[in-house]
Amino acid sequence: MNKIAVTSLGCNKNLVDTEVMLAHLKRAGCEVVGEPGEADCLLVNTCSFLREAVEESLDCIVELGTLKQGGRVKRQVVAGCMVSRYGDQILREVPEVDALVPHTDLESIVRAVTGSSPDLDPGPGPGPGPGLPFPPRVLSHPSHRAYLKIAEGCSNWCSYCKIPSIRGEFVSRPSESILSEMRYLLDQGVREITLVAQDSGRYGSDAGEGSLASLIRSAVGIPGDYWLRVLYVHPARVTPELLQAMGSDPRICPYLDIPFQHVSPPVLERMGRGLAPPPMQVVRAARAAMPGLFLRTTLMTGFPGETEEDFRLLLHFLTQAGIDHLGVFAYSLEEGTEAAAMSDQVPAQTARDRADLLMQEQAEISARKLSLLVGRELAVLSEGADENGPYGRHRGQAPEVDGVVRLDRDVEPGTFIRVRITGSDVYDLEGEVMEQSQI
Description:
By secondary structure, the chain is of the alpha/beta class.
């Protein structure tokens, strides 16, 4: 049983776990195949952050499980957040599943794949070997960019979220482990490294590892032409020290992802996020410290007790703050959370309607802000091409979640280029490739 097909669902942190499991499997002699029907074993790394994510994960498991009926596929393994959230209940209630891999023991993937009679060689294979201070990884496509997980878990205990109970309390990785992995990724040809955690700004506060600011300063001490990006900084942790560190080197992308979730003080208090400074204060401080900063945030509509006035404040904030990139979630009642027991649950349709209104407003803001970039020359990292042609991203566009720069000709993926912006629409830019460039 040595051909494995992998489906990775959910966030980029989950993707890193998938890459670690792939490295263990490859070292054990497994071959990763692209088509599930060609595999001996299927691996699904699941997400269970929201009810919709649980449903997506279950649908995927059941659909792939049909390949076990008379086909080559003999085994299906489930990993990720669903395992942490539901445990052995998955084995009892989902007959398509043969084994589970908790996120706390990714090395057990080999045993889960082989079952009770391991027949794979756990000897050396591609990627970093045993004894190194960071877990092995097989980089997913595209290989010119990678996420680098700096911590596990979360200690915020927001009233709507189950992540702390699923992934555990926040635990920082040792800085030397992170820096060693970063050096390894750069040696593999990675040109953009994105630091991620559930709450990146908390880094080091639990383990005497310094701070996110000190980690960033150490990271850019590593030589090379690359971009360094940071995602998921709680608004309470956008400090002068962090902003100063982010402005200390041109390789650090002037980009901050600050998940505000809401701006109404009563709503933020019920969410368990009331200790942060007012959102507009954070935005102004960040932009004052880093002129040209690109901001991304996530906002939630329909949280229990959200009134029309609360929502009006949210719309006003969006207009006032001029957020560059926005993700909006309609509140989802998650069983076992504090928010699920709150009175004044907002009707689901109202939450969705409010989310739509926010995105309509954001479309106008985004189109207006992008139009101001027309005529400028920007450094762009080529991503290759998709069904709409060649494209790349500038420093203010994070991979997979933001818009892109559409290019007038093909450029080798992973190449830094200078691009003159010639046009814009609601979320994307258009540009003329001028030359290959240093960062």
